[in-house]
Design brief:
The complex is a heterodimer of chains A (110) and B (112). With 110 residues, chain A is mainly β. Chain A is built from no helices and eleven strands. In chain A, β4 and β5 form a beta hairpin. The termini of chain A are far apart. Chain B contains no helices and eleven strands. The termini of chain B are far apart.
């Protein structure tokens, strides 16, 4: 079983739509969780950390369900500039290494 | 806003040659990392560095790889004898503590 699993997509949505991405992880020792975005041939950029209580940053909401080992990202009112690959990333307790999922590609269309 | 910088942006080398990839982490960050991404694949951890020593490394980071912080600003990754399969994008990252890591723009390494 992959350590971090994501639906590869692509998700094709119109501008203004709400879109949700899901991610599951296999290691229950995972402690920290993040969403990064990656544009084509660019570096991963930290979008947000994911906290147990859930957190929101503008149009973006992240949720964590430790019991189900599941993380989600919700994007409201999609913009063309949201088109990118969204990477689910975990960090195990006591480790520095980040473990990346393969990413979910989002294409927002006019 | 402070950023991680990397040089060169693209490096072409012949198999068997040594390459050094350079990074300048964000100035007040204490933890430094190298990751790589083979084209079309996911980002993979190579090594983390703290307090002038390697704190963690992956199976990929074998004897052909080494890291160094030669002065107060630069952080380098050396590959001693490059192989074709070392062709990838190499990302440097840094963090204040061990969690939220900020990535540089990467060096595309092409081994011919």
């Amino acid at each position: 079983r992959k350590e971090v699993e994501q639906d590869p997509g692509p998700f094709n949505v119109p501008e203004g739509a709400t879109v949700a991405f899901n991610c599951t992880y296999s290691n229950s020792a995972s402690q920290s969780f993040f969403w990064y975005r990656q544009d084509c041939r660019k570096e991963p950029k930290l979008l947000m950390s994911v906290y147990s209580s859930g957190n929101e940053d503008g149009r973006f909401t992240a949720q964590l369900n430790r019991a189900s080992q599941y993380i989600s990202l919700l994007i409201r009112d999609s913009k063309l500039s949201d088109s990118a690959t969204y990477l689910c990333v975990i960090q195990e307790t006591g480790r520095r290494a980040l473990t990346f999922g393969s990413g979910t590609r989002l294409q927002v269309q006019p | 806003e402070p950023e991680v910088t990397q040089t060169p942006s693209h490096q072409v080398t012949q198999m068997g040659q040594e390459v050094i990839l350079r990074c300048v982490p964000i100035s007040n960050h204490l933890y430094f990392y190298w990751y790589r991404q083979i084209l079309g694949q996911k980002v993979e951890f190579l090594v983390s560095f703290y307090n002038n020593e390697i704190s963690e490394k992956s199976e990929i980071f074998d004897d052909q790889f080494s890291v160094e912080r030669p002065d107060g600003s630069n952080f380098t990754l050396k590959i001693r004898s490059t192989k074709l399969e070392d062709s990838a994008m190499y990302f440097c990252a840094s963090s204040v503590e061990g969690n939220e890591q900020y990535f540089g723009p990467g060096t595309r390494l092409t081994v011919t």
